[in-house]
Amino acid sequence: MQKFWNTPAGRYRLQSWLVTASSAIVISALYFLLHAIFPPVESTLETVQRENLITLLFIVLSVLILFPARASLLRHLFRRQDWETLVDEDIHHLDFLARQFSVDSLLHQIIPDLLFWLRVTSARIAILSEDRKSYRFHIYKNGRIIKGNAIYYQKTEDLKREFKGFRKIARIDDEEVPESLKEIMQQNRVAWIVPFIFRTRLLGFLFLMEPPRNKFADRALQLFAGKAAVSIQNHILSSKIIDAGEFEKELQSAEKVHSLMKNSRVPTFPGFQLLPHEDDSGSSVQEFFTMGETLFLVIFATSRGGGVSGLLLSGLLGHLYSLVHLESDLSIHRILGHMRKENYLLRTEPGVEMMIAQFHAGGSVTVFVEGKQFRFQDTTQPDRILISPGWRNYVDLSPGILYRVEHSNRILLDIRAQKEHAMQEEFP
Q1: What is the CA radius of gyration of the chain?
Q2: Tens-place pLDDT, residues 119-142
Q3: Which of 134, 189, 131, 198 is nearest to 163 (CA)?
Q4: E strand or H helix at 228, and its extent?
Q5: How wide is the angle at C-alpha 259 spanned by C-alphas 257 and 261, nearest 5°?
Q6: How many helices (H) and strands (E) does the chain have?
Q7: Model pTM score
Q8: Please, are residues 355 and 369 in contact by the beta-carbon 8 Å criterion?
């Protein structure tokens, strides 16, 4: 009887027989109760009528009350009308694993059913997050989640290291399990660890705090681990597709912001002709502004184009605008100090470089460059080095000579110094 009771199908059959027997007793009692309510009569005709009335009442009460009550009792006793009540244990793990499931149904449906079938009361499951950097733990007690979305970094790092070599179910009493892994299991009071491995990546694992009490547990858990790993991998890939769509929208917005902010007005400044070049790659922005009788030029550039670079460069311009709006006396070193101190982008994004130029009356320019990709060259002597990164460079421009500012071999700006009588000349 004990062996019969320990199987889900056996329990279902035994409980069904008990309910059926109880229903039979209740129905028989109802039949005799109706005979007691209606006393016997002497007349044969009246006796026939009495029996017909009792039979009719018995049928009506049984159909309207007793049968629905029995069905309701069965639904209350057997809430799991699936594998545990319809199939035997020896085919359950195949029938059960044929069910399709997502990560959400894995957590809230599959794992509770699996723990019930394994007859394990306490367990934990860890699932790799979408960013593939941490694992989310969910703790189960008696088939229900009592705590979810907890993160344990040290535990997962140790397990990732151990399961790189031991790529199967770890049992505390298995002699093949490495001692270092057994030590982790003993520290966490774990009886079994079921790893979810997809190719070379550990996508999650299941902690069973007590050994399963099902003779088919090992075979079922091996199949379950593979299917769980695929489900987690599909979940991560689908989240990446969604993120990529949102990221594409952000890139488009960033490109629009960038296009609005990079259209700086080129001022008229005595002694110079300035001709900015369009940068279709979106990898640079340049801004002119005057402070008193001094003209400043600030260029931010990166070797990478696209919406992300546009967003970064536009953020740099925002810092620069705030400085120009608040300050009444600017210099190259004041601009440089503000950008270094207030703006984290230049510190955290090494690909962004900056050039600051201050134009002086008489055709000279002071230039400071932070980065190695900027070039300030005399087009008649392209091999001549006019500026050095990290230094304050003073360049005396020869009238009529075309000077050019480049970054990563992209032309950003043409400059020509002019004599007083040639102020209105145009670029060739």
Answers
A1: 41
A2: 899 999 999 888 777 888 899 998
A3: 198
A4: helix 217-261
A5: 70
A6: 14, 15
A7: 0.41
A8: yes
How many angstroms separate the CA atoms of 220 and 315, rounded? 55
Task: Convert the pLDDT of each residue in 394-425 to its tens digit.
Answer: 999 988 899 999 988 889 999 988 765 444 44
Q: How far apart are CA 343 and CA 240, in angstroms?
A: 30
Give mean pLDDT, residues 187-216.
88
378 bridge partner residues? 381, 403
Q: Are 189 and 204 in contact (CB under 8 A)?
A: no
For residue 349 the two structure tokens come to 């994004």
Give the pLDDT confidence of 318-353 residue by residue, as tens digits. 777 777 777 777 788 888 887 777 555 565 555 788
Q: Let me know if 128 is exposed, middle or buried by CB neighbors in 10 A (0-12, 13-18, 19+).
A: buried
Indicate if the alpha-carbon torsion angle 161, 162, 165, 170 is positive or negative. negative
Beta pairing partners, 123: 140, 208
Can you give the pLDDT at residue 89?
44
Same domain, 64 and 117: no
pLDDT tens for residues 352-379?
Answer: 888 999 998 888 899 998 888 899 989 8
Instruction: Give the number of domains in the chain.
Output: 3
Domain that holds residue 108: 88-238
Domain boundary among 21, 46, 79: 79
Q: Tell me the two tokens of residue 59.
A: 């049928």
What pLDDT score was predicted for residue 249? 55
309 contacts: CB under 8 Å, gap ≥ 6: 258, 282, 283, 302
Q: What's the rounded Cα separation, in Å, for the pair 305 and 20? A: 76
Q: Which amino acid belongs to residue 85?
A: T
In a domain, 69, yes or no: yes
Last residue of a domain, one of 45, 61, 79: 79
Domain shared by 138 and 19, yes or no = no
Of 27-36, 362-371, 376-385, least confident by mean pLDDT is: 27-36
Environment class of residue 57 by beta-carbon count within 10 Å: exposed (0-12), middle (13-18) or buried (19+)? middle
Residue 254 lies in a domain: no
Instruction: Give 10's pLDDT tier (boundaries 50, 70, 90).
Output: low
